[in-house]
Design a protein that fits this description.
The protein contains three helices and eight strands. With 204 residues, it is of the alpha+beta class.
C-alpha cells in the first residue's frame, strides 16, 4: 500500500480509538492503551523501529490516577499573539494561535490551534518526568489533526476544559528519528512531575 494511504489509515484508526467506547475512568484508559499498543505492534506506520517491534510487548504507562484528571476554566491567554514552532523536519515552521489557558496542580498550560488547512487543537507539555521516565522533549495531551479527539482534552460548552493526563502520550519522534515533532514551548513547561500516562521505552 502507498505510504500516504497507510498514514491515512493510521489516523483513521487513531480517531476510532479515541472516539469509540469505553471512554470513562480506568476502563477507558485501559482500552485506549491496549488499542495503542496493538497499533504500535502491528501497523506499518508504527513509529517503532523494526528491531524494537520484534520484541515489543506494549508501551509502559504509569498506573491510572483519577487525581490526574483536571477540570478547570479555559481562560483567555495573556498573550494572544501567534506562536511559531520549528519541527526540524519537512513540515518546517508551524504556526499556532493561543486559544486559552488552563490551570493545573502542576502549573498553567496553553491550548493552541494550528494555523493551517483544517487546523486542529494542540496541547504539548513538558514536566519534571521529562527525561526521567517520559520522553525528554515532552508529551502531548492532544493533537487533533492526527486524530486524537477528546479523552486527553475535552472542552465543554460551559467554558470548562477537562485535561486527563492518563492519556498523555509521547510523540512519534520519541521512538524514531525519522519523525520530527513540534515540542512544548516554555509556557507549557510544568514544574511538577505528572506521573500519569505514557512513559518511555527503556530501549529507545
Amino acid at each position: 500500500m502507498d505510504e500516504a494511504l497507510e498514514l491515512a489509515d493510521w489516523r483513521r484508526r487513531t480517531a476510532a480509538l479515541y472516539l469509540n467506547g469505553p471512554a470513562e475512568g480506568a476502563e477507558g484508559a485501559l482500552a485506549w492503551r491496549r488499542g495503542r499498543d496493538a497499533m504500535f505492534r502491528d501497523h506499518p506506520q508504527s513509529a517503532l523501529p523494526d528491531e524494537v517491534r520484534a520484541g515489543f510487548t506494549g508501551l509502559p504507562y504509569w498506573d491510572y490516577d483519577q487525581a490526574a484528571v483536571v477540570t478547570a476554566p479555559l481562560t483567555a491567554p495573556e498573550d494572544d499573539t501567534g506562536l511559531e514552532i520549528e519541527t526540524g523536519g519537512e513540515d518546517g515552521l508551524l504556526r499556532y494561535r493561543r486559544t486559552g489557558r488552563v490551570a493545573t496542580p502542576w502549573g498553567g498550560l496553553t491550548l493552541f490551534w494550528l494555523l493551517g488547512y483544517g487546523g486542529g487543537l494542540f496541547l504539548p507539555f513538558r514536566d519534571a518526568t521529562s527525561g526521567q521516565g517520559s520522553y525528554g522533549g515532552g508529551r502531548y495531551l492532544t493533537d487533533t489533526i492526527k486524530g486524537t479527539h477528546g479523552r486527553g482534552v475535552v472542552v465543554g460548552d460551559d467554558g470548562m476544559v477537562t485535561l486527563d493526563f492518563n492519556y498523555a502520550y509521547n510523540p512519534s519522534c520519541a521512538y524514531n528519528p525519522r519523525w520530527a515533532c513540534p515540542l512544548a514551548p516554555p509556557e507549557n513547561h510544568l514544574d511538577g512531575a505528572v506521573e500519569a500516562g505514557e512513559r518511555i521505552l527503556a530501549a529507545t
